[in-house]
C-alpha cells in the first residue's frame, strides 16, 4: 500500500536489516560454531544470539506502517473492501517471499547433533553441488517474512471489524487493550507447544498444520501478532494526535522492558534450551518494551539526503532484496574462497569482521542502485504489482 513514508521508520527498519545482514553472514561463516561451549559461550556469540531473536521489531514496524496507511485511507473515505484487498495482496506477497526464503534462498538450520546445516535448495547446491528438496521442518518453519505476512492478514481482518464500529469506540485504546490481551493470551503457547510436538511425533499432520502458525518454535503469531498490535496502537496514537501519546508509549515501553528484564534475571535459565516457558515469555515482554522505546525514538526523525543516516535508510527502503539473497551470496563467496584456498575457514573474530564488511558492500550497492529507483528489486516488484492490480480494476470499471 502506498502512503507517505516516515523517515524514522525507514531508518529503524534499515538499521535492523543492516544488523541482521551482519549477524547472519557472521554466524553462518563461522565453521567453529559446533565447538562453541554454549554452557559458557563467548560474549560475541551471546550478543549475536540475542540480536538474532529480534524478529519482533520487524513485526512492530510492520504493524505501525500498515496501520498508518489503513487509518489514512479510511480517513480519506476509501472503501474498506479495497483497503483489505491491498492488505491481502501484501500479505500473500510476503508469504510467497517467506516460502522462497525458507525453502530456496535462505540460511541453513543448524543441527548440533549431526554437526551440520539443514540448508535451503540454493545454499546446499552451492556448497555441495547436490540438489536436496526441503523437508517437513523447513516447510513448517515460520521465518520473519512469513510471520509478517500472517500479521498483515490478521490486522486486515481486525480493521474490517474496527471500521464498522469506529464511531463508537476509542480506536487507540481499543488497539492497546487488544495488544495487552493478546500478549497474555500467548501464554497458551506453552501447553499448546507440547500438544504440537506430540502431534508431530504421532504423524497427526492435520493438527500440526492447525497449530503450526500459532505455536511453531520460530516466530508464531502467538505472541508476534502482539508486537504488530503494539505497533498499530502507536500508529493510532499518532494518527489521532492523542495528547501525551509519547508519555503513554514511554511509560508502557519502560514498564514492559523493566518487568521483562527482572523476570528474565530471576527465572531459571532455560534460554539456551530455547524452551517455551516463562523465561521465553519474559524475553518477549522485555522485547516489546524495548521495541516500543526504539519506535518512539525515531518517530520525529527528519529526512536526510546524506551521511550515515541516509546510508542506513536505504536498507529500510530497498534492503529486502539483499536480505533475501544474503545466504546464497555468502555461500558463493565462501565456496570460491575454499576452492582458491584449500582449507580456508574464518575464526570467530574474522567472521564478524567479514559480516560487517559484506553489509557495507551491500550498502554501497544500494547507493548505486538508488539511481535507477531500485529497479527489479523485491520492493520495486511489490509496487508494480499494486499498479497492475489498480490498472486491471480501472479497465474493468471502464468496460462496465
Question: How would you characterize this protein structure?
Answer:
With 400 residues, the chain is mostly helical. It folds into 2 domains: 1-52 and 309-400, no CATH class; 59-120 and 131-303, no CATH class. Helix content is 73%, strand content 2%. The chain is built from 17 helices and 2 strands. A two-stranded antiparallel sheet has the order 1-2. β1 (109-111) and β2 form a beta hairpin. α5 (121-128) runs parallel beside α15, α7 (144-165) crosses α11 (221-239) and α8 (171-185) runs antiparallel to α11. The radius of gyration is 22 Å and the shape is globular. Residues 396-400 have low confidence and may be disordered.
- Total domain units: 2
Ranges with pLDDT <50 over ≥5 residues? 396-400
Distance between the termini: 26 Å
Broad structural category? mainly alpha
Shape: globular
What percent of residues are in strands? under 5%
Average pLDDT works out at: 90
Sheet with most strands: 2 strands, antiparallel
Strand order in space, largest sheet: 1-2
N-to-C SSE series? HHHHEEHHHHHHHHHHHHH
Oligomerization state of this entry? single chain
- Count up the helices: 17
Q: Tell me the radius of gyration.
A: 22 Å
Write the layout of secondary structure elements.
Elements: H1 7-29, H2 43-51, H3 55-75, H4 80-105, E1 109-111, E2 116-118, H5 121-128, H6 136-140, H7 144-165, H8 171-185, H9 189-201, H10 205-215, H11 221-239, H12 245-266, H13 278-298, H14 307-318, H15 320-340, H16 348-369, H17 378-399
Helix pairs in contact: 1-3, 1-13, 1-14, 1-15, 1-16, 3-7, 3-11, 3-13, 4-7, 5-15, 7-11, 8-11, 9-10, 11-13, 12-13, 14-16
